[in-house]
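Please supply some protein, with C-alpha cells.
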Amino acid sequence: MAHKTNRRDFVKQTTALGAAMWVSGKSVIADSKSPNQKLNVGVIGAGGKGATDSREMAKCGANIVALCDIDDKALGKASVRYENAKKFNDFRIMFEEMGDKIDAVTVSTPDHTHAVAAMAAMKLGKHVYCQKPLTWSVAEARKLRETASENGVVTQMGNQGTSYDGLREAVEVIRTGGIGTAKEVHVWTNRPVWPVKEGRSSETPPVPKHIHWDLFLGPADYRPYHPDYHPFSWRGWVDFGTGALGDMACHTANMVVMALDLFDPISIHAKSDGISNGECFPKNSVIEYQFGERNGLPPIKMTWYDGGNLPDPSLLHGMKSSSSGSLIVGEKGILYSPNDYGAAYHLLPKDVFADYKKPEPVLPRSPGHYQEFYNACLGGFKPMSNFDYAGRLTETMILGNVSMRANQKIEWDAKNMKITNIPEANKYISREYREGWTL
C-alpha cells in the first residue's frame, strides 16, 4: 500500500508543477528526487500505431509493464519486445489487476474505444496519451476534457505536429499579423486511403481464434465479425471510425485552428453523398465551418476537403498543391502549409514576403512529441496538445461528421452542446453504449 500512496502523491505533485512550468514557458524536467521518476506505462492497443507509441515511450525511459490488445497476434508480437510486461485482452481487467503499478497509459485503439479507455485511466489518476482523434463523438470529447481538468492528470493527444517548431512558428506568424487579418481558411487531405464500402456484408465468417470480437466492439452496437472491420478498414465505418475527417483533421487543421482560435463553430455544412446505408463514410466530401467572433477576431469560414477535392489552385500563386495541407488567406498574403502536420509553411506571394522577418518566438519549443508527454508526467511543462486543447479541436472537427450524418447544415450552440435548427440531429452528438461499457 505504501508504494501505491507514494506513486499517487508523486502524480499530484509533478502534475501541479508541470502546469506552472507551461505558464512560464520553460522546457525542463523538475529536479525530483522521487524513486518513481521512471514511469510505468500500460499500453492499450499494442499493434499498428500502438507499436509505435509504446516503442517511443520506451525510448523516453518508460517501463512498459502491461500490454493490452483484443488481437492475440498483436499482443504476442509486442510481448517479444516487452517480455516482462503482463498481457491482457481487456483494459478493464488490466486496471483491476495492475492499477497500483501503472502511472500512465497509451491508448492506440480504434476511435470508438478511445473515450472509454482514457476515461477509465483518468478516473484512476493515470496520465493518458491518446491517439487522434481524441474521441469518436462530440460528447465524449467534451467529457474527457472536463475529466482531465478535474483529475489533474497529464494528457496529450497523438497529433505530433503540435510539437514541431514549424507549426509553432507558423502560429506565431499568424498571431502577430504576418499576413494581416485572416479572411478564409482551407484544409485538405488525401484520405480516405482505405476501401470505401456501401454497407455491411451479408457474410458472417467465423471469428478468428486470435481476435476477441466482443472486446473489439466495446461500446458499439453488436454486429457479427467480418474482416472488413479489423485490423485497418474500421476507419471507414461509422460505428468504429470517424472517416477521413477524424483520421486527419486533428493533424492537418491543427495549425490553423491554434493560430485563429477556431473553436465552437456556429454552423457546419457537410457537402457529400452522405453516409452510405447509415454505415459508411463517403469517398469524398467538402465541409464548411462558420465561426463567429472569437476573442476579438472577426467571423471566418473554414473549408475542409477530402477524397481528391482541393481548394482553388490560384490561391497557391503558382505553387503545386500538396495532397494534404492547409492555408490561411489574409489581407496581406497567404500562409500555405504543404504538410500533413503543419510542420512547414510558405508565405505567398513569395516576392511580397522576400524580406519578411519572423517574429520572436513566444511559444516554448518542444523536446519532441513523446518526450514532451513523458517529461510532463515527471514534472515538465504541460503538453501543448493536452486534452483541454485537443478536446476542443476534436469537438470542432467531429461536428463535420454530425452534419454529414444529419445530411444537412447544422447550427451549433457550443455552450449548451446542442444543434438548434434540427433537434432530431442531436442524437448524433453521443451514442448509447452497450451494457458493460461506460464513461
About this structure: The longest strand covers residues 182-188. Residues 165-195+231-363+393-428 form a domain with the Dihydrodipicolinate Reductase; domain 2 fold (CATH 3.30.360.10). The chain has two domains: 2-162+368-385, 165-195+231-363+393-428. The CA atoms of residues 180 and 331 lie 5 Å apart.
